[in-house]
Amino acid sequence: MLDRRRVLQTLAGLFLSGFGLSSYAYAWEPTHQGVTRYRLKPASWPDGKRLRLAVIADLHVGGPHMPVSRVRQIVEQTNALKPDLTLLLGDFVASRARRPSDPAPAEWAAELASLEASAGRFAILGNHDWWQDERAQKELSGPTQSGIALEQAGIPVLENRALRLETSAGPLWIAGLGDQEAFVLRRRPRGFRYGVDDLPATLAMVDDDAPLILMAHEPDIFAKAPARVGLTLSGHTHAGQVRLFGWSPIVPSRYGNRYAYGPVRENGRDLVVSAGLGTSKLPIRLGAPPEIVLIELG
Is the pTM above the cut of 0.85? Predict the structure, then answer.
């Protein structure tokens, strides 16, 4: 038979355990990014050729864990990896309506301008870069403030655009897909498309057989990407922000945990989904620490 003292001790233990876990998920894990490394050899990648890709996703600057000073730290940490290419996968702004106290886009873009990569730095936009832009939502068209700030900082924004690069590993195509969820549902006219993505038009710019890397903020496009796309890089999911034993209870994808996080290989094609760096909606992370991704190709 349980006595009152033991019951109280058990309840106190549960309370303290829950409080400690909550504190960790709010105050510790979201603020300490690491580097996650992958080594891949996508289809059609040339033998004996190596290339280092740094991937930065979902900063959500202005959110509770992402002041501009932390963006500076992330840039320094990324540069220390000495990547050949640095690719930014969207959602640069907080996941809510803009506040007067938020950093101006030019502030965080100026920090990102310090990224160093021998073959270049390139960006795409995420849904929150569109959703937070009142003019873009009202007029149902770009450019967005995030896109303008990045371009002015010298970082090309690839929106349904592909570029052929000459790298130390040989020629390479970098393609950027327009965001698949650019417009808030309640604000778009009946029959108007939800996104600004155009994969066929983007791939039509690719006119030779050099390896192709696709940047797409949301990973769902991977399910219908053709074999020509050897590697797709995405963010958006934050690995669910809460991830237990490799499973996330909530994933913002129609495919659920199939594309929630990490490397995925299907039908000879590769996808890497980053857990990102900031937080979205809920200011917590548990089992899904923020990360800079380094991919070594070859």
Answer: yes
